[in-house]
Amino acid sequence: MKPACIASSGPVGEVAIEILKPYGDIVVAKDSSEEALLQILEGAVGLILRGDGVGSTKVIETATDLKVIGRSGVGYDNVDIQTANARKIPVIITPGANSQAVVEAALTFILALCKKMIHWDVQLKQGNWRSRFEQSSGDLEGATLGIIGFGRIGRKFAELIRPFGMTVLAYDPFVTQETAHELDTDLVELDELLQRSDFVSIHALLNENTRGLINKERLSLMKPGSFLINMARGAIIESLDVVHDALVNGPLAGVGLDVFDPEPPDVSHPIFKLDNCLTSPHAICMSKGALAKSFKMMAEDMAAVLDGRKPRFVANPEALG
Predict the structure, then answer these.
(1) Cβ distance 290 to 98 under 8 Å?
(2) Is domain 5-97+288-320 in CATH 3.40.50.620, yes or no?
(3) In the chain, where are the structural domains located?
(4) What is the mean pLDDT of each run of 10 residues along the chain (321 residues)?
(5) Residues classed as catalytic
(6) Among candidates 135, 101, 130, 140, which has minimal Cα distance to 118?
(7) How far, in Å, CA of 280 to CA of 1, rounded?
(8) CATH architecture for the domain at 99-279
């Protein structure tokens, strides 16, 4: 019989390796596909799913010794929760570990697009000094930011943006007006948020209600010259086609995309040829500090499960009985 191990869909930090060392070596798959994971599950008492790692029914059922699944993030749409529950396998998540990094990344996209950083960089390097008289950058002061999803990350973004002198709107059917007002934020319906915002930043979880939430019709509601940022899940936007159309034909002046559906995306899509589409391979918020916090939180709770103790952050508490 193969010794116990921890299977992982991707590399993990030293802090996680150290915490989980008593339960076996961490074995990393050659990639995050289902096929690659299936090859390393023998003896796996723990499964770490990084990024788009696949926690499918087949993966969970094949891992006959599996006792816990760890997600180095808060989303768990890539895990078959029903199968995990059937086997009483808790799915560990790390809420808040990367909140600061996510909102810093969203602000980076907004500033880069609004201030035309890529454009000015190209113009100068091409020797076009006179370009400074041909266009001008935008402003955050006096503009309106719309936040879709006002959970831990959305609220932190409202706090971060306060010194910029912006009006902040939020859409979240699970948040009260009182909670929003505590952060100088107006809670509004989604269509109103899209119509009033100069910048829209998505921070919602992906579920049956948010899948395809931003579609062609809703994009048409946005203000001419507005910007869209997605730091949540790619499938919250209906498709790259509708975003491309909104960039080429209006109303969008620019987009910042860190997430896609599927991942990785097909980079032959015409949207990737537009200089007002800034992208990141689901990586812009993977700062050193955020990763260290996430790995530590995940590993500590995985260790708790393997020791028979109660973990802190579980996506499916029903699996704990």
Answers:
(1) yes
(2) no
(3) 5-97+288-320, 99-279
(4) 87 96 96 94 96 91 97 87 97 94 97 97 96 95 98 96 97 96 97 98 95 98 98 97 98 98 95 97 92 96 97 96 78
(5) 233, 263, 282
(6) 135
(7) 42
(8) 3-Layer(aba) Sandwich (3.40)
